[in-house]
Prior knowledge:
The protein is of the alpha+beta class. The chain contains six helices and eight strands, in the order βαββαββαββαβαα. The strands form four sheets. A two-stranded antiparallel ribbon has the order 1-8. The longest helix is centred in the last third of the chain and has 21 residues, at about 160-180.
Amino acid sequence: MFVLAVIYENCTGCHLCELACSFKHHGVFDLSLSRITILTKPEVQTSVQVYCLQCRDAACERVCPMDAISRDRNGAYIINYDRCIGCRECAYACPFGAISFEVEARPIKCDLCGGEPECVAVCPHDAIVYMEEKKAARELKKAKAAGVAYGLYGGKETSEHPRKKAEEAVEYLMKLVEKSGELDV
């Protein structure tokens, strides 16, 4: 099974993942509509990602009175909005605060973009990875052991790598905008 994982040391708090997520799901660049949230504390130069961990025994699924949350073939818990009544029980039950709400009281949570997470594609520093569970666990251990940024491609970052990835991220976002045919910021 593939999992979404984060190498915290690599996150710079650029918020590109949030922008790509909101654009993928809503066609607008709006941080409040993202399924991943970046909490940044500039005074300690730290950013932490809040996102759905797709728990094995998900509390959100268990407490839903309408059985509107179920797991798909990619291992993501998906909300059936035709069944959801907006009671917020899923958000109250989530121990990680990974479920938020739209203005219309519809819950928002990560659905892994059908197996191709946009946040992974756009992250210029490889802070978010989507890979086999065992491989992800090894990569995270390597990052932790190194105590410094550790890239998805298996090597420590060079000064050239983040800039190149940032340029690729901007190109990727522009392609998303071009594909949609409009820009609504």
